[in-house]
Structure formats: C-alpha cells, structure tokens
Amino acid sequence: MTTTALDRIRALPLWTGKVDPQPLAGGITNSNFMVEDGGARFVVRLGEDIPAHNVMRFNERAAALAAERAGVSPALRHFEPGLIVIDYIEARTFTEQDVRDHLPRVAELVHRAHREVTREIRGPALAFWTFHILRSYVHALRNRAHRLAGDLPRYAAVAERLEATLGPTEIVFGHNDLLPGNFLDDGERLWLIDWDYGGFNTPLFDLGGLASNNGFSPAQRDELLAIYYGRAPDDRLRLRLQAMLVASLLREALWSMVSESESRIDFDYRAYTAENLARFERAHAEFEAMAG
C-alpha cells in the first residue's frame, strides 16, 4: 500500500485525532486497515470500482447500509468513492470448520439477511444474476485470449445447463460471496461482513456458495436446506442446490482467471484458479450423477 493511500486514510474527516492505520490480512478484492480513534476501532476498506467483477462501490454502500439496518452487519461510519469505514467487531473470524460446526447459526443468519436486507435496501442497487456474471466472464476471457481460452466453450455450455436446471426462482438481495472469513462470531452473535458483491439473485446461489466454500457433506447440504426452507428437501431441491453449488465454483474460478490480469493485489491467482477449477470439476461430476 502506497504512502499516498495511508495519508488518505489519516486525513479522513471523521477522526478525532492522529491515527496510525494498521493493515489487516485476508482481502483479495480490497485492501483493509484497522484504525483506532477515540477509544473505538474501525475497519477502512480501500477499493475502486471493478466493473469486470460487477463491483460498484455505490452498490456496496447501499448494501452495507441495508445490512446495518437489518442488524446483520456492523455500522457504516463513512463512505467516499474508493473507501468505506465500518465499525470494527471484536470477534473470531470463521474458518471452514467453524462454518460447519455452527451450521444452524450460519444458515439462520443467511436466511435473516436475505429476508431483512432485501426489505431494507434503498435506491439504485445492482443485480448479481449468476449466469449473466458467468457469460460476462467467458466473453471477457475470450477477448483477452486467456491461457485457458480453449476451455471456455465447455464452461459456457455447463453454465447454460445449470441455468436450465435452476428454473424459475425467487429473488432476494444476496451477499454472493459467502466465504468463511465473512462470518464473525463475537461470542454472543454472528455478523456477516463485506457486501461488495451484494446484489439481487436467487437465494440458492448463496446457499450453494456456502456449501461449496465450506466443504459441506451431502448431509450438511440437506440440513442447510431444511433450516432455510423449513422443510426436508426433496430430490428436485437437492439438484437445484447442487446446480448452484457448481455455478458458484465456476464463478469463483472464472473470477480468478479474470483477476490474474485485472488485480493489483499481491495474491497467487493462478494457484487459486487451479484450486477452484479442480473443485468445480468434482462438483460438476456429482451434479451429472444426480441429474442422471
């Protein structure tokens, strides 16, 4: 991070005195810092619009404010283009194992977020229709002559089959990036953070992403569906969830392929691409076995 960026954080008008921003690890879309001021702590997230990934900061602001009003995310204290400040939560960041161990709490939080953030969103807000995102990535990677461009027609065909399998769906304002690190446990309750990919989508994309990002077993997927929908899943619902689980892994892989050339953050995107493509292939094989 450049001295200019640090100076920008220090010069923000909300501080009551001199501050010393400290970097936080873990971000692969934004650069994050913790700031202490006036006996309180805050997280400062730096990141410009990323149209290639459907990330627009006006939309993140709207989502963060809605999530704050819904009581699922910490308060937003300051926003300006390329920078957002939220309250720091003294909490444990979840791992994949934590998400699995606390599945009922996590599922209930996601259900609450879908219901309440959808009600609280105000003004212009983006859609995050999974299959539009996938088509956009395929076109972008083809135009850039990506090193894996020869595989793109197959990925596009798989996406079309997944979209047909999903069929008609309800729409909610989803989080769309349910990595374990976006769940915080303060000892009393769970929080859901980082709404830069928020947008209107099928709830099954968040549920599929939750299952894929956190290594859910078939039994845990059934438990997730039962908690979310209030009934035991049937084979049709299981297949639709599996379709969106595959779509979430394909989206993550294509996201990483685009990020190989798009991002300036120090992260091994090639390795991340390979990891997610391997997981996608395993999940896709399971989907085809379920679909018959």
Automatic annotation (TrEMBL):
One BP term from GO: phosphatidylethanolamine biosynthetic process
A GO cellular-component term linked to this record: cytoplasm
MF (Gene Ontology): ethanolamine kinase activity
Signal peptide bounds: none
Keywords: Kinase, Transferase
One of the Pfam families matching this protein, by short name: APH
Occurrences of domain Aminoglycoside phosphotransferase (ranges): 22-234
Source superkingdom: Bacteria
Gene3D superfamilies: 3.90.1200.10, Phosphorylase Kinase, domain 1 (3.30.200.20)
Record PANTHER family: CHOLINE/ETHANOALAMINE KINASE, ETHANOLAMINE KINASE
Record's protein name: Choline kinase
Origin species: Methylopila capsulata
Lineage: Bacteria, Pseudomonadati, Pseudomonadota, Alphaproteobacteria, Hyphomicrobiales
